[in-house]
Write a structure and sequence with these properties.
This protein has 150 residues and is α/β, with parallel strands linked by helices. 25% of the residues lie in helices and 26% in strands.
Length: 150
């Protein structure tokens, strides 16, 4: 199910050959995908065939934060209300974005001001915990659904 207002932003640097196929599959969950090639000039070789996938090529490597910020700004220009940030090697399971949206709405309905929904586990390993012992929240970047209102 494609969720209106949700655009994925993918940072790429010498991306793998299967990136195009994974982005095509991701389009069933998001409105559009913005790929930011962070100075490698190699993403164009993948020849994305869907007009809902946009490629931004940076002339030099700006680092993942720089690339994601450029992609997020473009997503805002395209009308995004939420942005799903991903690495070039991320695999998004079916229903992932809908689950993130549901978690975001649930938290907002409880009166919480939410900046992002993040995965709690990656490949079965716990990566973020709130309120357990002295372990701080340690969110992973890839897979975050950012609420642009935050």
């Amino acid at each position: 199910m494609t969720l209106p207002g949700t655009i994925a932003v993918v940072s790429a640097y010498h991306p793998p050959a299967d990136l195009g196929a994974r982005l095509e599959a991701l389009l069933s969950q998001v409105e559009r995908v913005v790929v930011v090639d962070d100075g490698s000039s190699s993403a164009r070789d993948l020849a994305f065939s869907n007009d809902r996938i946009e490629l931004i090529e940076l002339p030099a490597n700006r680092g993942i934060a720089g690339a994601l910020n450029i992609g997020i700004r473009r997503a805002e220009q395209l009308g995004a209300t939420q942005v799903l940030v991903l690495d070039q090697d991320s695999v998004v399971p079916e229903g992932y974005v809908a689950t993130c949206h549901a978690d975001l709405r649930d938290a907002q309905d409880r009166g919480l001001r939410v900046a992002a929904v993040v995965p709690a586990t990656v490949e079965g390993h716990v990566i973020s915990t709130i309120g357990v012992g002295d372990r701080p929240l340690d969110p992973i970047q890839s897979g975050q659904l950012l609420a642009l209102s935050a």
